[in-house]
Amino acid sequence: MQSSTEIGYNSKIEGDVIHTRLDSALNWCRKNSLWPMPMGLACCAIELMAAGASRYDISRFGSEVMRFSPRQSDLMIVAGTVTYKMAMAVKRIYEQMAEPKWVIAMGACASTGGMYRSYAVLQGVDTIIPVNVYVAGCPPRPEALLDALIKLQGQVAIEPLVATQKKVA
Q: Which secondary-structure segment (H or E) carries 104?
């Protein structure tokens, strides 16, 4: 006699009620709908655009909605060289984003200043805003950005949400 194994939710066995934690349900929604704010500052922006094309299909991860408004996005992708002239604009846009928010530093220039060791280039975007995931390369391939997105989704999935909320009086 051969037995079959049920995978997933079976309403005949478990009934019509699904039990989960509120944190798990909210984090599942948040991790599958990260809306990026693209900060394309140099050549890495071309690879960022390629990740949104049909060949790499960033929409599989729920991030196809590139928002050019900081109030409608929750993920900033800093792609390219950040100069001191642009640093305050990048920081201002980050501060205008609603909480919770995350940052991916894409490329060697955004992560460490790259090959530009000059007075005009910021040596890493993490000196002005917190970075969650770094993507190596000059320029990094679109697959590397998708891998960083998967890593960020893993971080979002385990973040405590409800337990850390402050009570508003």
A: strand 102-106
Task: Using pLDDT thresholds of 50, 70 and 90, give the confidence band for residue 1.
Answer: low
H or E stretch including 43? none
Q: Strands, E, within 1-149: which ranges?
A: 36-40, 75-79, 102-106, 133-135
Other CB atoms within a 10 A radius of the CB of residue 112 amount to 18
Q: Which helix (H) or strand (E) holds 75?
A: strand 75-79
> What sign has the CA pseudo-torsion 143, 148, 151, 157?
negative
How many angstroms separate the first and last alpha carbons of the chain? 62
158 CA to centre of own chain: 14
Q: By three-state DSSP, how is residue 119 classified?
A: coil
pTM: 0.80
Q: Residue 87 CB: number of other CB atoms within 10 A?
A: 16
Looking at residue 132, what is its pLDDT?
94
